[in-house]
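A further point concerns the way the authors explain their paired sequence and structure data. Showing the layout once, in full, would remove most of the difficulty. For illustration, here is how one protein appears when written out as sequence plus C-alpha cells:
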Amino acid sequence: MSRRFANNDAYLGDALSHIRDEDLAADVEAFRDQWLSEVDVNDLRRAAIVGKHPKTYEDISRGTWTGPTEGLVELDPKEKEALLKELESAMPEPGMVLVILAVSLAAFLQGHVQTSINGASLYRANIGLPSNETTFGMSPDGSNTEMWMDRNILRPSQPSPNDWLLGITNAAPFFSAALLGCWMALPFSDRFGRKGSMIVAAAMVMVTSALLAMIPVISTSQPKWQIILGIRIVNGIGMGIKAVNTPVLASETAVGYWRGTSILAWQLWVACGIFVGFILNLCFSQAKDENLALALILGAPVVPSIVLLGVLAVCPESPRYYLRRGPNYNPKKAYEIIKTLRRSPLIALRDIYLLHKSIQQEVQVQYKKNMDLRTFVTFMETAEFGVLKDFVKQFRELFAKRRNRNPLISSSIAALAQQLCGINILAFYSGTFFNIFSNNKNIAMYFSIGFGFLNFVFALPAIRRIDTMGRRRWLLITLPFMSLMMAAAALSFLALNNESIPESPKVTCALIFLYTLTEPGPIPFTLAAESFPLSHREIGCAFAISVNLFFAACLSLFWPSLIAGISSPGTLGLFSFFNVLAWVLVFLFVEETRRISLEDLDYIYAVSKSKFWKFQLYEYAPWVLKGFVLSIFGKRQASTDDATDDESISQHPRHGPRPQLYKPPDFDSDQLDQSGSEVEMDDFDPDGISEVSRA
C-alpha cells in the first residue's frame, strides 16, 4: 500500500480500536471510579462494548446479525430502537429540542438584524444620507425610461459620497463582528461557556437595537447616521459572539450522524428571520410618519432578543465544554448533560466514555506521550488559554499544525463561497436593488418578501440532504446553477433595448428568485463548527466565521458603489463569475465531512492540501469525465458506492473503479512512546471511515 503522507497531528484509529476486549473492563472501571461513581460499572462496561463494535450492534438491533453470539452484550428492545433511531431518524433527540430551539432563535435574530439594516436603507434620507432617486429609480408610469436605461446600463455614474457613507453605515456591524465579536467569543466562551456567551450576545443585541430605535425620533445636532454607525459597531460585537458560539453549541450536542441537520437550524432560521423581518418592514412602512416607521424597523430585533434570552435560561450547556482542558474540566457534569440529550442511558454512557477516550487519545498523539488516567486528568485540569500569550500560541497552531490548518482552509473557503455567490448581498440590499424597478418603497418591500420566502422555503430540503448528500457535494451542485441564474438575470437587463420596460423587470426578478432556490447557506457555518478539534474549536470557528462576516461587510460596503459604478447588470454578471470561482475553490480544496463524528474527522484532515487538490484534479476529475462520456455513449451500470465524498457517478465495465484517496489506518499503541518519534499513517478508505464514524 503506497504511502501518501505522514500524519503527525491526527490520532489514529477510532477511540477504542486499540484496546483489547480483555483490557477494556479495567479501563472502564478506572474511568467510572474517577468520575461516575454513581453509575453501575456493568452498565458502563456494556455501553463501552457497544461503542467499540458499533456495526455489530447495529446489525443486532436490525435483527440481521449472523455471527457468533458468545460474549455479546444483550440489548433490550428500547435500546435497540434507540440505536436505530440514532442512525436513521433526522428528527432531533427529545433532549435536543431546547438546544435546537435556542439555536433557531439565535439564527432568527441574526436574520432579523440583517433585514433591519436592509429596510432602514430605504429611509436613508431620514438619517441624513439622501440620494438622487430620480436618476436611480424608474417612475411607476415609465416616463423616465431613457434616464433609467442610461443610469443602469449605458453610462453608469460614479458613486456619490452618500453612497459610500450608506455602505459604511450598513457594513459597520459586520466589520465589528468579524474583527472584534468573533474573537471576543473566545474569552467569553472560556469564561461563561457556549450558552453563557450566547446570553451575553443576545443582551448586547437587545440593548443596541433598543437604542437604534430611539435615534430617528429624537432631535440631535449630530448627524443621525453617525450615531447609528457607533451603535451598530457594538451591535456587531454581539452578532459576532453569537455567530461563533451558536453553531458550536449545535455541533457539540448533536448526534454525530445528524450533526449537519442540527447545525442547519442556524442557516434555516436565519432565512426565516430574514423572511419575517421583510414582512415586518412592510407593516412598519405603513406608518404615516417615516421617522416612526424607521424607528420600528431598527428596533424590531428587540423582541426576538428577549425571547432568546428566555430560552437560553433553560437550555443545557454543551457537554464538550466540560471536556476541554482547563479548570472547568469535569466529565461528570458532561455526563449529566448528555443524559438529557440522548434517547437511552446506554447511549449516554457510550457517548461519555467514547468522548473521554477520543480526547485522551488525541492528547497522547499531540504530545507524543502515553498517559495513565491520573496523569491525563491532572493535565486536563490545568488551565491552558488564560492570557494573551496563550491565545497567540493557539492562533499560531491554527497554521502550524496540519490537523488545524486543513479545516481552517476548507471552512474559510466555504465561508468565502457564501459571500461570492451573492446571496447575502441580496439579503442586505434587496430593498434598494428592487427599488430600481420602482420609486415605490412598498413595491420594493414586496419583492424583498418574495426573496425572503423562497430563501427560507428552499432551505427546508437541506434538513436531511445535508447529512445524506454531504456538504461538499451540496456546494458543487448548487454553485453552477447560481452562476447560471445570475448571468441570466444580468442579461435580462439588456432586453430593455428592444422590449418594453414592464416585462424586463419581471424576467429579472423571476431569475433572481430562481437563483435563491439553490443557495449554499447551510454549509459554511456547518463546516466552521464541526471541523476543528476540541482544543481549537472556538478559535478555528471564530476564524472561519470572521472570514464570512468580513467579506459580507466588504460587499455591504461596496454594493452601493458597485451598482453606481458598473451598473445593475454588471454587478450581477460579476457575481456570476464569483460563483464559478467559488466552485473551483470548493472542488480543489474542500473535503467531505458528512456522517463522521467530530473526533473521527482527524482521518479526513490528515491528508495534505497538496495531495488533496492533485487527487481531485489528476485522478478524480478525469474519472468523472470518463464516466460522463461513457454514460452518454456506453451502457450504464448502477453504482453501489455511496460512501464517498463526492458525486455518485454510474459505473461502467470500461470505466474502472472509483479512485480512492483514503485507505483505513492500522492503530498501534506502540506508536505512542516516550521518544517523541513521528507517527505515520497510510491513506484510508471512506468505507472504513463510515464504520468508525458510527461510534
Remarks:
- The mean pLDDT is 79.
- The longest helix spans residues 161-214.
